[in-house]
């Protein structure tokens, strides 16, 4: 008889506990994906000597949909001012819904003289027939920092040969250059086998690209 009473009390208690459980109400919110646009004041390409400190340009951010001005944060995590090269400083801004917009500033760390100027048209011969080739325009952005208009050596007269990609590179010594890792119109670009020849009259730049859609062959451009 005692056992039966205990069993009944246990069942009643079990129902009591079950009855006390709360129902969880979940609330969801549909938001429009909108990313802040970052505007950099000044050139996104700067140069500093080895061991120097970058004077980074200021920037503002605005979300055109939510009408917000989120704070811009600069990340120097990948910048090594003790080693010559081309580095990326990322600017980011997050709106109230957590959507992040980004922009990049490129910093050349180099001790080459400001008198070094590789600007001009360059020609990449195709095979043994040097009458055929691809051209690229190199312009100076800052001390030891340059932009090539056609990093892949695409035939500018024939759109079917691929996309024309502009890319910046730093002159890290009188015999080497560095593309670093940078965002281009065709995705993230980096390079290897990067060399510079200043032997007159054959000034040239050579490198192999690591970029989707482009082969890893060495590309050599000769200054015209």
Written account of the structure:
The chain has 224 residues and is mainly beta. The protein contains one helix and 15 strands, in the order H-E-E-E-E-E-E-E-E-E-E-E-E-E-E-E. A nine-stranded antiparallel β-sheet has the order 11-10-9-8-7-15-14-13-12, with no helix packed on it. A four-stranded mixed β-sheet has the order 2-6-5-4, with no helix packed on it. The chain has a two-stranded antiparallel ribbon with strand order 1-3. It is globular. It starts with a helix and ends with a strand. 25% of the residues are buried. Residues 1-17 have low confidence and may be disordered.
What structural category characterises the helix and strand content? mainly beta
Number of strands: 15
Number of helices: 1
Note the main sheet.
Answer: 9 strands, antiparallel
Number of domains: 2
Q: Key terms for this structure?
A:
224 residues; mainly beta; Immunoglobulin-like; 1 helix; 15 strands; disordered N terminus
Question: What's this entry about, in short?
Answer:
The protein has 224 residues and is mainly beta. 8% of the residues lie in helices and 44% in strands. It has 2 domains: 37-109, Immunoglobulins (Immunoglobulin-like); 120-223.
């Amino acid at each position: 008889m005692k056992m039966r009473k205990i069993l009944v009390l246990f069942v009643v208690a079990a129902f009591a506990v079950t009855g006390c459980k709360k129902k969880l109400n979940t609330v969801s919110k549909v938001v429009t994906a909108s990313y802040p646009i970052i505007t950099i004041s000044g050139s996104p390409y700067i140069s500093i000597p080895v061991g120097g400190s970058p004077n980074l340009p200021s920037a503002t951010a605005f979300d055109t949909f939510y009408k917000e001005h989120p704070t811009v944060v600069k990340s120097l995590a990948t910048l090594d001012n003790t080693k010559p090269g081309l580095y990326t400083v990322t600017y980011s801004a997050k709106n109230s819904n957590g959507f992040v917009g980004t922009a990049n500033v490129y910093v050349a760390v180099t001790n080459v003289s400001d008198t070094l100027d590789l600007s001009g048209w360059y020609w990449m011969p195709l095979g043994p027939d040097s009458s055929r080739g691809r051209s690229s325009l190199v312009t100076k952005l800052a001390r030891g920092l340059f932009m090539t208009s056609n990093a892949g050596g695409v035939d500018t007269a024939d759109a079917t040969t691929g996309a024309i990609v502009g890319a910046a590179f730093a002159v890290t010594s009188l015999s080497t250059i560095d593309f670093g890792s940078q965002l281009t119109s065709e995705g993230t670009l980096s390079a290897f086998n990067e060399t510079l020849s200043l032997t007159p009259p054959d000034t040239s730049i050579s490198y192999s690209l690591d970029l989707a859609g482009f082969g890893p062959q060495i590309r050599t451009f000769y200054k015209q």
